[in-house]
Amino acid sequence: MLIPIKILNPKAAPPAQAYGDGDAGADLASVEELTLKPGERALVATGIAVAIPKGYAGFVQPRSGLAARFGITLTNSPGLIDSNYRGEIKIIIQNTGADDFRIGVGDRIAQLVILPIEHADFESVDELPSSDRGSGGFGSSGKKADGRW
Predict the structure, then answer these.
(1) pLDDT digits (tens, 9 = 90+) for 102-147
(2) Domain for residue 23, yes or no?
(3) Which CATH number goes with the domain that contains 28?
(4) Do 6 and 47 form a contact (C-beta atoms < 8 A)?
(5) 3-state helix, strand, coil in the chain (%, to 5)
(6) In a domain, 136, yes or no
(7) Domain annotation covers residue 142
(8) Whole-angstrom Cα distance, residue 73 to residue 93?
(9) 113: domain range?
(10) Which pLDDT score is estimated for 2?
(11) Does residue 129 sit within a domain?
(12) Confidence band, pLDDT 50/70/90 cuts, at residue 68
């Protein structure tokens, strides 16, 4: 699949797969320099825009190495890029680690995964079909028979 990209900033790098076509995600790099203190978050520019084909969406996800080594994550992970969006991709990055984290120009800060999506129509009903799970959520599958976690 060919995804057209537009370079909006001369410091920008196109999305790149580190190991080739076996990679599900393409790395996104920063065009800014900044330091995130522990607990801080920032909106970081990538300097690129993309044209994702209709029937697909882009999902911006954290890089596992940054998460494991430094506690760097994306606040709204996965970030969603709709096929009709043509603006700059920006990353909401957060430092959950104990130390300052420096981001430099060209640093890979997230990854973009392109996936097919299904358009859904919604219909208001009086009752939903039943399921084994029912309305249980937010940890309901972790409860023991006696109600403990």
Answers:
(1) 999 999 999 999 999 999 999 999 999 998 888 877 766 776 667 6
(2) yes
(3) 2.70.40.10
(4) no
(5) 5, 35, 60
(6) no
(7) no
(8) 6
(9) 5-118
(10) 94
(11) no
(12) very high
